[in-house]
Design goal:
Rossmann fold, globular, 7-stranded mixed sheet, 187 residues, binds S-adenosylmethionine, alpha/beta, single chain
């Protein structure tokens, strides 16, 4: 069973993530994706960013962990929520934006390539993606969970086949320049 499918780990993550949110990313996204657009969040976890996105967009939350989703169903009873794996994104619905915060870094390189291709299919023409990663050039396993760190060039190479890159920039989550976000438009 994976890390995010065990109750004690979900609790640990929620405690660890307290006080952090994707406000900086969403502020950047708002510069490129108009308010009221239909946005899919991948890997919403506890749903902190879903609430912020919901102030601006028609948002659908998703995660591959039923445990996170069950919690969010209770906390945000009106929210539109789906079980979705970031790699396969098995939905017939289309979105104008796709957002994730520190999610795609758990995928292998091959899985990330598949996810990017699938994201392009799930997006409307000229749809926008906004994703964050930890910045760096290493791979770690923590409690059986993979973390792949990315630098600007790697992200550019991965996304450039299907997307025109708008911004790739470092930012601070905990320490200066520890994180990286990409905003890009479907070609
Ligand atoms: C580091 S947490 C980030 C959670 C949330 N985005 C936040 O900012 O607090 C990673 C999240 O990605 C989800 N996740 C990991 N791999 C996934 C996958 N293949 N498909 C969908 N969700 C995934 C986990 O269940 C977890 O909610």
């Amino acid at each position: 069973m994976s890390y995010y499918h065990q109750e004690k780990n979900i609790e640990e993550y929620i405690q660890m993530a307290k006080g952090y949110n994707g406000q900086k990313l969403i502020t950047e996204l708002l510069k490129h994706l108009p308010q009221d657009s239909r946005v899919l969040e991948i890997g919403m976890g506890p749903g902190t960013d879903l609430t912020i996105l919901g102030q601006h967009y028609k948002v659908t939350g998703s995660d591959y962990s039923e445990m996170f989703l069950n919690r969010c169903r209770k906390t945000y009873s009106n929210a539109d929520l789906l079980v979705l794996d970031a790699v396969t994104l098995e939905t017939d619905l289309k979105y104008q934006g796709i957002y994730s915060n520190k999610v795609l870094l758990h995928l292998t390189h091959e899985e990330l390539k598949k996810s990017i291709k699938r994201q392009a299919e799930v997006l409307d023409p000229l749809g926008i993606i906004c994703h964050s990663f930890w910045w760096g050039n290493k791979e770690e396993i923590y409690n059986g969970l993979r973390f792949i760190y990315y630098a600007e060039n790697q992200l550019r190479t991965l996304f450039m086949d299907s997307f025109d890159i708008i911004t790739i920039r470092k930012y601070q989550e905990i320490e200066p320049d520890d994180s990286l976000f990409i905003i890009a438009r479907k070609r």
